[in-house]
């Protein structure tokens, strides 16, 4: 049963009270091989598609194993998160989504990770749009979006100067 509770933006206690999924996390992080970890992560994503940390972990597992990973993994999690937020907020993103609520952190992380992926393909302006969304939703910026945004702005200035 899913219960959506709106309070200061977006909160969904099913998704990120880690106790609900602790056994899943333990199995993944105690796995003996990359192949086993990838298999467990893929199963977790299939079963819990709105637990966005699984997408990040799968992406990072491929990066650690192969030195590269398909950006589509992060993009899929990001798209699901954004669609879910908009669905629960009358078609728009919430104005406030506090980092202090543990239930929101995986959403902040998937948006931030997608912004980082956009940097890798030199989509600095698109990355900054996402970072600005994060900063608007939580100006205290616990995730550090302001630093990546400044790096992107510098890269944009450098490109214009060439």
Explain what the structure shows.
The protein is globular and about 50 Å long. The protein has helices spanning 22-29, 34-47, 53-66, 71-88, 102-120, 124-137, 145-161. Helix 3 runs antiparallel to helix 4 (71-88) and helix 5 (102-120) packs antiparallel against helix 6 (124-137). With 162 residues, the chain is mostly helical. The longest helix has 19 residues, at 102-120. The protein contains 7 helices and no strands. The chain has a single domain (18-161), classed as Tetratricopeptide repeat domain (Serine Threonine Protein Phosphatase 5, Tetratricopeptide repeat).
CATH superfamily: Tetratricopeptide repeat domain
- What percentage of residues falls in helices of 4 or more residues? 55-70%
Strand count, sense and closure of the main sheet? none
**Secondary-structure-derived class:** mainly alpha
CATH class, please? Mainly Alpha
CATH topology: Serine Threonine Protein Phosphatase 5, Tetratricopeptide repeat
Low-pLDDT runs? 1-17
- Helical segment count: 7
- Strand fraction equals under 5%
Name the features.
0% strand; 64% helix; Serine Threonine Protein Phosphatase 5, Tetratricopeptide repeat; mainly alpha
What's the layout of helices and strands?
Blueprint (H helix, E strand, L loop, with lengths): L21 H8 L4 H14 L5 H14 L4 H18 L13 H19 L3 H14 L7 H17 L1
Helix pairs in contact: 1-2, 2-3, 3-4, 4-5, 5-6, 6-7
């Amino acid at each position: 049963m899913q219960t959506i509770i709106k309070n200061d933006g977006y909160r969904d206690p099913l998704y990120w009270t880690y106790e609900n999924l602790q056994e899943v996390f333990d199995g993944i992080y105690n796995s003996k091989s990359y192949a086993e970890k990838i298999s467990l992560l893929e199963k977790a994503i299939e079963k819990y598609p709105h637990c966005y940390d699984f997408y990040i972990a799968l992406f990072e597992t491929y990066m650690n194993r192969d030195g590269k990973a398909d950006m589509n993994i992060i993009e899929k999690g990001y798209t699901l998160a954004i669609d879910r937020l908009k669905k629960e907020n009358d078609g728009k993103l919430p104005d406030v989504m506090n980092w202090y609520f543990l239930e929101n952190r995986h959403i902040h992380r998937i948006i931030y990770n997608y912004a980082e992926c956009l940097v890798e393909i030199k989509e600095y302006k698109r990355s900054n749009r996402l970072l600005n969304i994060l900063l608007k939703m939580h100006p205290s910026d616990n995730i550090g979006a302001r630093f990546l945004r400044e790096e992107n702005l510098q890269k944009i200035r450098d490109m214009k100067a060439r």
